[in-house]
Amino acid sequence: MSWLPTRRPGPKSQEKREVPDGIWLKCPGCAEILYRKEVERNSWVCMLCGHHFRISADDYISILIDPESFEESFDSVVSIDPLGFVDSKPYPERIAAARGKNRHNEAIVTGKARIESVPIGLGVMDFKFLGGSMGSAVGERIARIADLCLEEEIPLVLVSASGGARMQEGILSLMQLAKVQVQLARLGEKGIFYLSIICDPTTGGVTASFATVGDIILAEPNALIGFAGPRVIQQTIKQDLPEGFQRSEFLLDHGMIDAIVPRAEMRATVGRILHHFWDSRPARLDRP
Ligand SMILES: [Zn+2]
Fold first, then answer.
1. What is the average pLDDT score of the chain?
2. What's 241's domain CATH number?
3. What global pTM score does this model have?
4. Which domain holds residue 40?
5. Do residue 20 and residue 109 come from a single domain?
6. Mean pLDDT, to the nearest integer, of 227-256?
7. Which residues make beta-bridge pairs with 35?
């Protein structure tokens, strides 16, 4: 075989070797292979079918608010392991692993920001952090950002993406539902506007508490929104579920949410709604 020239890698195979992992994405909506950078430029929405990818809290914040307007707060509020909970792994190990993969240390990021120049208190959940589960730290951060909104009389915007209460903190997680509801009721009493944005997926205790009690509730297209998952319901009632059950469009038809807003229009839409309330807010009278 010596008469054959020595094989050298051609430009094509060289190029292939240099392609880093993750440069392409498969769209769960249409199964097409997409160029990741292009999807990112399109606010993580498929250019072909409009599928909204699940994104991190940081990505959502940059899409939603005025550039450079976010000031994070309450990031020192973190979960401990009050029950000494162990399943297949101890709970502190699960938290440490989630922190290793995330820039943030909890399943929600809170702080002050501006949308179309209106100042707001903001909380954005991150499904990639332990399934966006609500433990005591998540509940406490929401309670504190609501306090800040009460103090400064600015609207509250919460973005949900969560599997529900955090099982590893047991009853302490469930108590967050009531705590957050009390805070939202206080906002309501003072006439402070609360806007809820629901992303895919939002289920369990988060649906059952703050996600579905906004003065206005917006959802992303085709987001799964429910309490128990469809499989559990189907097995319980032993009936076929209607087409599109627990998706944004179904909830809109049944009066559970106010509007479905594509991600690319979210900032402008939220800005318009906020201005409606902000510009017409009553002047506060100082009473003794
Ligand atoms: Zn697609």
1. 92
2. 3.90.226.10
3. 0.90
4. 16-53
5. no
6. 92
7. 24
